[in-house]
Design brief:
The complex is a heterodimer of chains A (196) and B (173). By secondary structure, chain A is mostly helical. In chain A, strands 1-2 form a two-stranded antiparallel sheet. Chain A starts with 9 loop residues before the first strand and ends with a helix. Helices cover 79% and strands 0% of the residues of chain B. Chain B has 8 helices and no strands. In chain B, helix 7 packs antiparallel against helix 8. Chain B is globular, with a radius of gyration of 18 Å. Classes of the chains: A mainly alpha (196), B mainly alpha (173).
């Protein structure tokens, strides 16, 4: 493991501060570590590793990158790996970061599910996973409430969130047609309120 | 083979529709996998989601397990790649354009429009998962306790998952 032997070049970034440019191998190792460290999502860890520990990005650059990845559809961290990797080393960088991020977790989760498939007739295993399921469901609902909390002062945002919840959660309407109605309406309402 | 094609179609579409992250598509995944294709029960859907949460890595690993349950290793690969590649291809394609449109008014308006939809979809995901996980009153109480504990403290999510698993082991006889 020679993560620091390559002595990466340093350059002045347009946003101030210096960042180190990782090689393809360093990208792979960095995202491999990230994938293995993040429990309950990788996003909280990714800033610490990319900005504070490896200094691949300045805080301002990282915030920009994160905003872009949250703007685009798909898994946010996968997008982040692809875009950061491509900026550093093109397609190779994207592939190295993405495979590094997902390779080990996918292997681990497949081992877990194989064990579960094999032992799920044993009552203790079933009980364990029943408890785990209740916990995971409670965690996601808590995450959702945390995301919704900052909206509480905006009647527009609350109405849109309530409509989305009702359409997909309560009424179980089809996803694509629902989004085709809700998204343009929400964007139109946002445009109207930002103009004010 | 037909299952593989169906998996690819379902997850490739959701890849583009995953606004604000992978978890917002959980209601749509449940609808497709449980209600329409009848590949598993709502309780099994939650169990696979929970097993994915117990592993390290991004939240989207549940997709791998849904594919695994439907069609084994080939299903896991098909679902994972179908969910990843469309959105990642888009990210690869437009990532460098960001500096050109990040300060535009339409970008801010679109983002302001996306945020409340994301919140509503996450609430729907949480609601459906709790409904699927609450197979009896004890599981419902456990989910409520984790919910309250997460909102009231700053403990790591893994701590709550571990505590819930142990409570399940101890309490579900």
């Amino acid at each position: 493991m020679s993560a620091h032997d390559d002595n990466p070049a340093e350059f002045d970034t347009p946003l101030g501060g210096t960042a180190k440019v990782p090689t393809v191998a360093e990208l792979f190792r960095g995202f491999l570590m990230l994938g293995l460290m993040g429990f309950g999502g990788v996003l909280p860890m990714i800033r610490r590793v990319m900005v504070e520990e490896r200094r691949w990005q300045t805080p301002a650059e990282f915030n920009e990158l994160l905003a872009l990845c949250q703007f685009l559809p798909g898994a946010n961290v996968a997008n982040l790996a692809v875009i950061f990797g491509s900026r550093v080393c093109g397609v190779q960088g994207s592939a190295a970061a993405l495979i590094g991020l997902l390779g080990a977790p996918v292997a681990i989760v497949l081992v877990i599910v194989s064990l579960y498939d094999r032992f799920d007739e044993y009552a203790p295993v079933r009980h364990l996973v029943t408890g785990l399921s209740a916990g995971a469901a409670g965690l996601i609902l808590a995450t959702a409430l945390k995301i919704a909390k900052p909206l509480r002062n905006s009647p527009r945002a609350l109405a849109v969130a309530a409509a989305s919840f009702a359409a997909l959660g309560l009424l179980r309407l089809p996803f694509l047609p629902s989004l085709c109605v809700i998204l343009p309406a929400s964007i139109a309402l946002a445009g109207w309120s930002i103009r004010e | 083979m037909t299952h593989l094609v169906a998996l690819v179609l379902i997850f490739a579409e959701l890849s583009f529709l995953a606004i604000g992250g992978a978890s917002t598509t959980l209601p749509a995944m449940e609808r497709a996998i449980v209600d329409q294709e009848h590949w598993m029960s709502a309780a099994e859907f939650v169990r696979l989601f929970a097993l994915a949460q117990a592993a390290p890595g991004p939240n989207m690993l549940a997709v791998t397990l849904f594919g695994w349950h439907v069609a084994g290793a080939a299903g896991a690969a098909a679902a994972t790649l179908a969910f990843l590649l469309p959105a990642c291809g888009l990210a690869y394609g437009v990532g460098h354009l960001w500096v050109r449109f990040r300060d535009r008014r339409w970008r801010r308006v679109v983002q302001a429009g996306l945020v409340p939809v994301t919140a509503g979809l996450m609430l729907a995901a949480g609601y459906l998962l709790v409904r699927g996980a609450a197979t009896d009153w004890r599981a419902a109480v456990l989910a409520a306790m984790v919910l309250a504990g997460t909102l009231a403290t700053k403990r790591h999510p893994l701590w709550f998952l571990g505590a819930a698993a142990i409570a399940g082991l101890a309490g579900f006889h």
